[in-house]
Amino acid sequence: MNQSSQVINKISSIISTFLSNKGISSPEINFEKPEVATYGDTSTSVALRYAKSLGLAPTLLAEEIVSALRLENINEVQDYKVEKPGFINIYFSNTFNKLVLEDILKGDNAYWDSTALKGQTWVIEHTSPNPNKAMHLGHLRNNLIGMGLSRLLEARGATVVRDAIYNDRGIAIAKLMWGYLAHMRATSEAEPNIQYWTQNKDKWHSPESLSIPADIFVSRCYVMGEADTKSSPETDQLVRGMVLDWENQDANTLELWRAVLAYSYEGINKTLSRLGNKWDNIWYEHEHYKAGKEYVEAGLEKGIFKRLDDGAVLTNLESYKLPDTILLKNDGSSLYITQDIALTDLKKKKWNADRLIWVIGPDQSNAMRQLYAVCEQLGIGKISDFTHIPYGYVGIKGEDGEFKKMSSRDGTSVLIDELVDNVKIKIAEEFASSSKEISLSDTDLETLALAAIKFSILKINRNQDIAFDINSSIAVSGDSGIYILYTISRLNSLIKKAESDNIIPSPSALGNASELVKSLYRYNEVLEFAGTELSLNPIAHYAMEVTTLFNSWYAAESILNGDNKEHKIAVVLATRQILEKSLGILGIQTVESM
RNA sequence: GUCCUUGUAGUUCAAUGGAUAGAACGAGAGCCUUCUAAGCUCUAGAUCUAGGUUCGAUUCCUAGCAGGGACACCA
Measuring from the CA of residue A173 to each C1', which nucleotide is nearest? Predict the structure, then answer.
């Protein structure tokens, strides 16, 4: 426990004791940051909350609480004030600021280690890519949320397992295989059949031979393959036959399947590694797609599900107030939900998971609730162990300013790589016109572009739809990731200069920048809030707040000159620490200078 | 039709049931012989409607209006 939190805990326990003595059993004491600084550094509304049950006017109760607090003489508090209608506003002294800075500069153990979720294992499924399409902005948002949440949960002490599922079998993959076979022939003599292909693979194109990225290569194959099945019933038959051949483990079909998927994974991995993606485990549909049926049969025996006249199996979710859904088709084959039941049990057992999270689009929300209910009925876990994290669509801003869904068919689908590359160009142009002396490496440009993109997505509440304007959506000034990175490079430069001037950082109770320091103190509080909400935008907004406060201070104060240099450079160090930690959770890396 | 979700300055977004609804972009006015002006300071500008609960509602409840999504053998 760090020193600064102990101050709050002490205040809290004094109030708690006071209210208990008055007859309130286990009172809840809340603190919040007032809107305006004149209302103090922190504030509690306990008096408003309990005045009625104690039969006292709120301001009177507040006064009594303040008297009790004054008796204790807490060093770090300068003053308490009661404000109508009954708030108790607390003003910290500079001693408090000194403690905050000491805590932060002491490093990891003292300040950062949260034990809130210690001992818990969370499994978080995110970014399950579609093997036959290049990844677009929807996947980007999924990935940023999934990776961000897993870092946030880790920061709160949980053991986190990140996983994803590849839907690597079925009709869509067969279309992809056909598209490759029929349309990626390098010479006209190549025959579009599997047998021929296995003997003459060099007569087919690869991403390298066409000089295009693997994901684009795969997308093209799929689009052409699908078009063929639509226009020609014979091809459609043939593709369906490929699915059967695959299920019967036909060696040649499996070989083609592996070859095509290898391109697919190559493309996916290239894009995702750019983003800093990490999975601890990948589930492949072909490994478990049959297992779900047994769970459904077991449920039938227990009378949880019922078999319809045509042989299909239906849920009974009346007690959950959910619409029923089919678990097994009338031909006995399985559906998404069938496989997900098995997968959920696998996940839970493999990691002995306490909580399971799915980061998946909002269109799945009904299906997710059905899945969770069925899993509870089958005894796989409690419904409260399962959480769906939906997120709003990423669309395109239309001519009329309206939100339009992206569609690869209309060519309005924006790919992740395309976006990153465009933003890099934009930043480079901005930089070139800015009369700076330093030059930016390509690595720096990539870092900056990713910072701008990640921040602009994560600062938005995840349930909001985003209408993307390709020309202006990624801000490089103002409320942006670039603004924060720019500020960090200012901090870096100050720290370097302080080192060469031999200024030893040392927090002082006489120091200034108190508003900034008090906002640094809120880091843990923000993490806790974000963690309970499973939401990342509070962290983004917090980082912005710290940055803005620093820049205002920086503009008004000469940091490396005058009195108190040691204190001021301690503030600078602590600010950098907090900003880097916050950005770290968002998956944003920084540049040394820009 | 039922269920879920969203509605806040011109625009893009904030706001744990709290106090004077915050930022950014855009608009207007200033600030570089001094630590990085991608910065700082100031000005103008908003809670979809109607009820209710509460000391207090952008937030919770009810009913509307408007957008988006889901609704049984697709993936």
Answer: B75
ipTM of the complex: 0.95
Q: What would the 3-class secondary structure string for A153-222 be?
A: HHHCCCEEEEEEEECCCCHHHHHHHHHHHHHCECCCCCCCCHHHHHHCHHHECCHHHHCCCHHHHHHHHH
Query: pLDDT tens digit string along A90-104?
Result: 999 999 999 999 999
- Per the DSSP assignment, residues forming a β-bridge with A405 are A395
User: Could you tell me which residues are beta bridge partners of residue A394?
Assistant: A466
Tell me phi and psi for residue A26, to 5 degrees.
35, 70
Whether the CB-CB separation of A567 and A514 falls below 8 Å is answered with: no
A236-245 tens-digit pLDDT: 999 999 999 9
Nucleotides on strand B lying under 7 Å from protein C-beta: 3-7, 11-16, 18-26, 34-41, 55-56, 67-75
Task: Give the residue among A569, A564, A541 at the shortest CA–CA distance from A554.
Answer: A569
pLDDT digits (tens, 9 = 90+) for A463-492: 999 887 766 668 888 889 999 999 999 999
Distance (Å, rounded) from C-alpha A79 to C-alpha A66? 10
- Tokens at A120, concatenated: 């818990």
What are A429's two structure tokens?
């142009």
Measured CA A441 to C1' B32 distance, in angstroms: 27
**Residues whose CB falls within 8 Å of the CB of residue A107, separated by 6 or more in sequence, listed in order:** none
Q: Which of residues 372-401 of A touch strand B (CB under 7 A)?
A: 392-393, 397, 401
| β-pair type (A403-405, A394-397) | antiparallel
Evaluate if the CB of A5 falls below 7 Å from strand B: no
Of A513, A506, A514, A508, give the one whose Cα is nearest residue A78.
A514
pTM, two decimals, is: 0.95
Name A residues 288-347 whose Cβ lies under 7 Å from strand B: 308, 310, 312, 314, 323-326, 329-330, 335-336
pLDDT per position as a tens digit, A339-376: 999 999 999 999 999 999 999 999 999 999 999 999 99
For A149-161, b where at least 16 C-beta lie within 10 A, e where not — what string? bbbbbebbebbbb
- For residue A7, what are its two tokens? 């101050």
The A 235-294 residues near strand B by Cβ under 7 Å are none
Which nucleotide's C1' is closest to A559 (Cα)? Answer: B35
